[in-house]
């Protein structure tokens, strides 16, 4: 069948149609996005500038923060600006680019979180071999593999959608372009493609989540043989990661593990993994980590001293 595409733009319904609520949401999400960018940038700068934060855990954390900024920037600025306009439109090309970005950075984040769990597993369960296994070369290869995995996944999702014909309607009941809302607008039967989407997105999220759960069960079991101080330190670092994993994987798995549906809750759930989790990550990792907090204090004191000398 010849592909026909009469749609040049899509119209978002957004989070709410209420004008007063849109004004409140504009201020609220602008504040959230500022925290996402500033908080994650602070972690990146702190890790890069601190000599004490040179372990693989912080190497991965800096990349997680970078991905969080990119991930939220794909959807949040557009969503925030749309709160100020009545007609929330996006071009067809812009929609496909947004779809690619959401899945590229989202999947990369999933892989980096999985790599971080592997790092904690080696550090706690095989401490004597940690430095020989988790070399800088190995860490770099893991990060590159995470980016490549995200790219391949996103390309599959994007190519599946771009092959579909869109002849109207063009109204998307969401605040960004995603596979499920776009599948509903296609002019052909999309049941098979929907299954492929679930197999691609859902199974990546679910399988990585299961790997994470198994790795942390193994870690908890191995902690029985360690001292109380070692247990406390290990649990402290793992607790932050587990919290982030639950916040990100829970909503993400709910959205992508099932076929396309008419659940209006999808866009509310999406807020968690596109805005809330990237915003909370810096807080979770800094509030529960003394090394990061100390490094930030030193960075701040150095900045105050250097600015004082400059004025003097």
From TrEMBL:
It is a multi-pass membrane protein. SUPFAM superfamilies: Family A G protein-coupled receptor-like (SSF81321). One of its GO terms (molecular function) is olfactory receptor activity. InterPro entries: GPCR_Rhodpsn, GPCR_Rhodpsn_7TM, Olfact_rcpt, Olfactory_Receptors. GO terms for cellular component: plasma membrane. The chain crosses the membrane at residues 26-45, 96-118, 138-156, 192-223, 235-257, 269-287. Residues 39-285 form the G-protein coupled receptors family 1 profile domain. Belongs to the G-protein coupled receptor 1 family. This is Olfactory receptor. It comes from Sphenodon punctatus.
């Amino acid at each position: 069948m010849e592909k026909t595409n009469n749609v040049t733009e899509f119209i978002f319904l957004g989070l709410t149609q209420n004008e007063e609520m849109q004004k409140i949401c504009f201020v609220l999400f602008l504040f959230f996005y500022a925290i996402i960018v500033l908080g994650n940038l602070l972690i990146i700068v702190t890790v890069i500038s601190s000599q004490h934060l040179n372990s693989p855990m912080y190497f991965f954390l800096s990349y997680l923060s970078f991905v969080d900024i990119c991930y939220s920037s794909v959807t949040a600025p557009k969503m925030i600006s749309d709160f100020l306009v009545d007609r929330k439109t996006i071009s067809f090309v812009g929609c496909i680019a947004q779809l690619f970005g959401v899945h590229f950075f989202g999947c990369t984040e999933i892989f980096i979180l999985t790599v971080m769990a592997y790092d904690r597993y080696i550090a706690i369960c095989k401490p004597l071999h940690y430095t020989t296994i988790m070399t800088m070369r190995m860490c770099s290869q893991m990060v590159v593999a995470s980016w490549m995995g995200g790219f391949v996944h996103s390309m599959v999702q994007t190519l599946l959608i771009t092959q579909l014909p869109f002849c109207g309607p063009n109204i998307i009941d969401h605040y960004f372009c995603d596979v499920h809302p776009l599948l509903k607008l296609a002019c052909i039967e999309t049941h098979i493609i929907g299954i492929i989407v679930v197999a691609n997105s859902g199974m990546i999220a679910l399988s990585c989540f299961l790997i994470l759960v198994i790795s942390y069960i193994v870690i908890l079991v191995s902690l029985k043989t360690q001292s109380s101080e070692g247990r406390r330190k290990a649990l402290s670092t793992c607790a932050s990661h587990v919290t982030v994993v639950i916040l990100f994987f829970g909503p993400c798995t709910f959205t992508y593990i099932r076929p396309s549906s008419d659940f209006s809750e999808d866009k509310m759930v999406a807020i968690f993994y596109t805005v809330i989790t990237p915003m909370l990550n810096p807080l979770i990792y800094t509030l529960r980590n003394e090394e990061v907090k100390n490094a930030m204090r030193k960075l701040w004191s150095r900045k105050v001293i250097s600015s004082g000398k400059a004025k003097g």
